[in-house]
Amino acid sequence: MTDATGGTNATSGPGAQRVPGAAPGPAGAGGSGSDDAGAARRVRVVLVDDHRMFRTGVQAEIGETARTGVEVVGEAADVDQAVTVITATRPEVVLLDVHLPGGGGVEVLRRSASLMADQDRPVRFLALSVSDAAEDVIGVIRGGARGYVTKTITGTDLVDAIFRVSEGDAVFSPRLAGFVLDAFASTDAPPVDEDLDRLTQREREVLRLIARGYAYKEIAKQLFISVKTVESHVSAVLRKLQLSNRHELTRWATARRLV
Fold first, then answer.
1. CATH superfamily of 7-182
2. Structure pTM?
3. CA 159 to chain centre
4. What is the pLDDT of residues 116-151, one digit of tens each?
5. Domain boundaries 194-255, corresponding CATH code
6. Most confident residue range from 179-183, 202-206, 253-257
7. In this protein, which residues make up the domain named HTH luxR-type (predicted)?
8. CB 143, CB 114: distance < 8 Å
9. CA triplet 220, 218, 127: central angle to 5 degrees?
């Protein structure tokens, strides 16, 4: 029940978004599946991530439709673009980053509620993020995502997860399912941490990596940002939390089980 409509790069730069109207760009090596599987069924997918280089890598891994059965029909780099592209293309699955400009993955889910609720052609979301923090996992699952996998996943496993989510299954990276089970087993809402709420999603991400002992260069590589940007985020976190150094940041994060 899919068509052969792909997408074309409408704009350039990190915010480039692909919209319906032309065949997808060339795919690179990688991916999974077989020719028979691809011919039997295709899943139309939109990629939502604010790092163009990461989107390109995912496209190369999974986007060779004849081989994987996955057809990438659109891309977006922020919340507004995501909602526009998802509404225009009506994919079966959206690969959604948790941390996005404009409100994050949770905001994309909120604004896509009617698409998820469509009985005939539901749009299903699979979170794909570098973060494995419980608060991020629980947040997007409560928002309506069908699963959550980290960016360490292989191309083969990602294709499998996409197909499973398209069929209505719930898919999680190892150990993340426990966060969801624990959260939904309790009837008590988690307490609001006012200090943590002062931080942006990106600042929280940097904070967790700092607390885990990552050097600035390692954080920059992990998050696809510059070392200078990492330093700016750390300075902002220290200022907002009224802390003096990364050692105090580590203790603060450990006390809140963010590590």
1. Response regulator (3.40.50.2300)
2. 0.61
3. 15
4. 998 889 999 999 998 888 888 888 888 899 999 999
5. 1.10.10.10
6. 202-206
7. 192-257
8. no
9. 65
What is the rounded CA–CA span in Å between residue 155 and residue 122?
24
pLDDT confidence tier of residue 29, bands split at 50, 70 and 90: very low
Hey, where are the domains in the chain? 7-182, 194-255
| For residue 59, pLDDT beyond 90 | yes
pLDDT at position 11 is 36
Measured CA to CA, the distance from residue 84 to residue 106 in angstroms comes to 16
| Rounded distance between C-alpha atoms, residue 119 and residue 222, angstroms | 38
CB atoms within 10 A of CB 120: 5
Say how many C-beta atoms besides its own lie within 10 A of residue 176's C-beta.
Answer: 22
Task: Give me the amino acid identity at 5.
Answer: T
- At 211, the amino acid letter reads A
The CA distance from 7 to 25, in Å, is 8
Q: Which residues contact 93 (CB under 8 A, 6 or more apart)?
A: 43, 44, 45, 46, 123, 124, 125, 126, 162, 165, 166
d(Cα 98, Cα 104) in Å, to the nearest integer?
A: 6
Instruction: Please state at what angle helix 201-211 crosses helix 246-255, rounded to 10 degrees.
Output: 100
CA 103 from centre of chain: 13
CB 210 within 8 A of CB 234: yes
Number of H helices, E strands in the chain: 14, 8
